[in-house]
Amino acid sequence: MGNHNCFSTENLQDTYKLSMMQWYVGVEKEVQKLGFYVNVRSDHLHKQNFIQLYQIVKPQYEEIVTLSTTESLFATEFENIKRSKKTMDPFKEFHVTTLIQDNDSSLQQFEKQVLQQLSTLNGCLLEIFQYFRQTQLPNCSNQLDTFILKFRDSFVQILIHYYDLNLFASINKCNFLNTSSLQCLVSNMIFNDQVASHIYQIKKQEQKEENQKIHNKLSLFKDKTLADFGISIKYCLDCTTREYIQSKLLSKVNTCTQSSQIIIKDTFETLIIEDVDSIQLPSRPQVKLLQGTFFQQSPFQYAIEALKLIQFRQTPHHKVKQLITCFRFIYFAIIDYYNYYTKQPSIISTDEMIPIFHYVLCKSSLQNPYTHFEIMQKYLGNLDGVEGFYLAIMESSFNIA
């Protein structure tokens, strides 16, 4: 049956009386910081909203599993992905810290209900948000960032006081309900079409020179091969990678028969170029010719397509979710290639990932990349997780000469 019998009507009434007699004090304090004129104490819907949230109780059988920060660090991504195929989704933490409102399949029913309640505005919460909507947005990027972030952080505190979310999180053991996730939720509420478009246009105009500089650098690599980007032969996913893998496998084989079986197993030569000898590995000139042509398109094509979509995502958290998807496709491409040879790839270092992402960025033709980068960086809030690693890699790729 779960925990539901712990919250009878009487219990809810008592919880409300004990915890919420002075709920409006914290809310009024934040409203005053914003300079808004809203009569918080006249909210007759507060009790109804409070009880509706506390009636959402996590069933005991529904354990919400998230990875700790140390488990989801960049250096362990390969291990996370390999484990995910057998146990759990290693990217669950990303979905939690980038809370979205499009029925993400990774969210438990309990989480969805909580987020739905918190994002449903009425009473004084609606008045506060309407006041924000009616305020003229600044036309300077720095002032705009300050204004948006100030409102976001204040509204997070307003939700915490309004619902006594510390108590709710404690009762239901909601690890996903924290300041960082609430910042994500409120940001998604803020970034409607008008606000998202205004922020993008202001930043794009101010960063015109920076974006042009990046485009000029990327254009120099437009027709370059994977090897020209300085990508390790371990991750080019072409003949050089095959040669690298086979050298590792052959070093473990003691007989010629076993060695020949490994070579015969490779049927991918026929997918590259017809005149490549099906037995001999390509010579170095051929390797140069074949760089990046293994899949008849880029081996990282899915990552390239994913990165392109960042420019069509409205909120900073949808943008970073798209960035995470891009990196996932990079990892999957490498893992799938190595799995064909029944060998596990080594962990990719940050230095090895930067040229791969640089290649993906160049081939994606992403418009105004620096503007999208800054929107994610400015409005994500907590950058201690894997999102921060990916943004750091993105920024590093901008600086490659």
Q: What this model shows, in words?
A:
This protein is mainly alpha-helical. Among the domains are: 144 residues, no CATH class; 52 residues, no CATH class. 60% of the residues lie in helices and 0% in strands. It is built from 20 helices and no strands. It is flat. The chain starts with 8 loop residues before the first helix and ends with a helix. 33% of the residues are buried. It comes from Paramecium pentaurelia. This is VPS9 domain-containing protein.
Structural class: mainly alpha
Number of helices: 20
Number of strands: 0
Largest sheet: none
Shape: flat
Uncertain runs: 61-103, 254-295
**Could you tell me the radius of gyration in angstroms?**
26 Å
Span between termini: 61 Å
Helix content: 55-70%
Which keywords apply here?
single chain; VPS9 domain-containing protein; mainly alpha; VPS9; 401 residues
Mind sketching the topology for me?
Layout: H1 9-20, H2 23-34, H3 46-54, H4 77-84, H5 92-97, H6 109-118, H7 123-134, H8 141-163, H9 165-172, H10 179-190, H11 193-206, H12 208-219, H13 239-250, H14 256-265, H15 284-290, H16 301-308, H17 316-340, H18 350-364, H19 369-379, H20 386-398
